[in-house]
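Example S7 (structure tokens).
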């Protein structure tokens, strides 16, 4: 069999390859995102302009997350697949069209209300600590970006549709399209305005439009046709989607409330605090998306099918994916932790310790939230969106209290600490609840978490910013590369010593392919 035939024989929609595809696509998206942030930092630095730009996202993002975000995927996909199985493809497509019209109406109403209330929201909620002139700038930028929620919501629905059909690539590349538009805004649109930051805001609008158009063209090529007359809002299947979606939306809203509160607290801190937190948070999103988001998206259809087959199958599928996620996120976080400051210099061109320190404080939260995404999808596969909401609501209250207290003591670093504490608390509660429901082997999974978490801490204490070859791009890149190779080598030995089954099995298979036999523990 030649290489072409082998490639054609691979089931690229399987969870293993889907996860790989999504992870690569997300990495490419993050590369574009980091280029975007590098250009933003080089054009505006860390100051009032970047603070205002970051704060301006809060209102349009709140609307998008309140209406859709990941909610449509976790509620639409199970219902869509169930309709296809019990009824017909036409009936399933009718549901999709009805939801299109529904979210357009809701998003337009939400955006119009927010547009009218923007100055008040900025003054009293989003940025109460800013000077009046900066608050006015935030209001103007927010109103420009309020052109995006409708397109964002539709893009989310389109993404859910493509995931249901196991077409992951274009949806996973949506971040590339979005960030490309912002890059165009930074490079070209900024030259069109007296205040260049307005060009970046219009770049956000362009990116959102591209992100919407390209996946839409793919759905059309798959045979979908938009039906403006699909208005069966009271259909039982539509109501079922809404019923599943509402708790998920409320859970997502808790995340947005936390962001709004932390943004408001940050507006009282030193100039550049919000921008520094923004850059650290974007760096945090690299491992969070590559592991947590990619695995949760790729495995979700499989989890739904497993849930339909019974608890025993669901338990087996979840535990396998969960252990893989633990290993991958541990390795990625270890690689980034030992070179945090170097990565900030390479990516953002900013020789500032604050962003690296914020990222390091966010690492426990990244570990927890990466695994949380998979746990949450397991609940959604069981059509239970209420449990994650109630837990998220309680954790939101905890986070707000912690953010207020810790920001007074540790300034902006306190906000990062609050996020990590909240993530850990939410993870523990949901893991215990899911474990009881599916009768998971929590002792084995807990041991895996502790063993890998200890490795991250140990390797950071041992190798943080070691092998520094001096300043400059080449020297910094060489240092990061050397640290990364050493971390990977040490982890393989550590996995053998601590008997991390998944890693050892993978290594043994590769030794076998090379014709070398190894003794297994």
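Recovered sequence:
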């Amino acid at each position: 069999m030649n290489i072409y035939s082998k490639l054609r024989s691979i089931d690229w929609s399987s969870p293993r390859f889907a996860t790989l595809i999504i992870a690569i696509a997300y990495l490419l998206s993050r590369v574009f995102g980091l280029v975007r942030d590098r250009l933003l930092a080089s054009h505006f630095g860390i100051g009032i302009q970047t603070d205002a730009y970051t704060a301006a996202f809060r209102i349009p993002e709140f609307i998008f997350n309140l209406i859709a975000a990941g909610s449509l995927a976790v509620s639409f996909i199970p219902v869509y697949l169930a309709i296809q199985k019990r009824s017909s493809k036409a009936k399933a497509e009718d549901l999709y069209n009805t939801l299109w019209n529904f979210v357009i109406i809701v998003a337009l109403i939400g955006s119009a209300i927010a547009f009218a209330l923007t100055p008040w929201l900025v003054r009293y909620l989003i940025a109460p600590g800013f000077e009046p002139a900066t608050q006015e700038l935030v209001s103007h930028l927010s109103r420009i970006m309020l052109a995006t929620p409708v397109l964002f919501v539709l893009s989310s629905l389109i993404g859910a549709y493509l995931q249901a059909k196991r077409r992951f690539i274009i949806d996973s590349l949506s971040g590339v399209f979005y960030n490309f538009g912002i890059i165009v805004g930074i490079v070209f649109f900024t030259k069109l305005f007296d205040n260049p930051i307005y060009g970046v805001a219009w770049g956000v609008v362009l990116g959102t439009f591209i992100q919407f158009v390209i996946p839409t063209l793919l759905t059309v090529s798959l045979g979908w046709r938009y039906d403006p007359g699909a208005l069966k809002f009271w259909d039982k299947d539509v109501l079922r989607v809404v019923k599943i979606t509402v708790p998920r939306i409320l859970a997502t809203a808790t995340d947005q409330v936390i962001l709004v509160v932390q943004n408001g607290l940050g507006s009282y801190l030193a100039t550049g605090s919000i921008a520094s937190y923004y850059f650290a948070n974007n760096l945090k999103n690299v491992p969070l998306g590559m592991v947590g988001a990619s695995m949760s998206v790729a495995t979700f259809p499989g989890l739904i099918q497993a849930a339909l087959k019974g608890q025993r199958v669901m338990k087996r599928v979840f535990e396998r994916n969960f252990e893989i996620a633990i290993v991958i996120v541990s390795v990625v976080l270890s690689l980034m932790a030992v070179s945090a400051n170097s990565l900030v210099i390479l990516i953002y061109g900013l020789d500032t310790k604050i962003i690296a320190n914020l990222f390091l404080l966010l690492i426990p939260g990244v570990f927890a939230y990466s695994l949380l995404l998979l746990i949450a999808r397991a609940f959604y596969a069981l059509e239970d969106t209420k449990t994650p909401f109630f837990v998220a609501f309680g954790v939101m209250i905890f986070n707000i209290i912690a953010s207020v207290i810790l920001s007074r003591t540790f300034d902006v670093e306190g906000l990062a600490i609050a996020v990590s504490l909240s993530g850990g608390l939410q993870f523990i509660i949901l893991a215990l609840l899911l474990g009881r429901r599916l009768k998971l082997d929590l002792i084995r999974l807990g041991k895996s978490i502790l063993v890998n978490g200890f490795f991250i801490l140990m390797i950071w204490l041992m190798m943080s910013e070691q092998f520094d070859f001096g300043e400059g791009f080449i020297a910094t890149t060489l240092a990061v590369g050397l640290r990364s190779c050493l971390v990977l080598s040490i982890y393989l030995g550590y996995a053998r010593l601590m008997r991390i089954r998944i890693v050892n099995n993978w290594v043994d298979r590769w030794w076998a392919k090379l014709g070398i036999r190894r003794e297994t523990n």
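Notes on this example. The radius of gyration is 23 Å.
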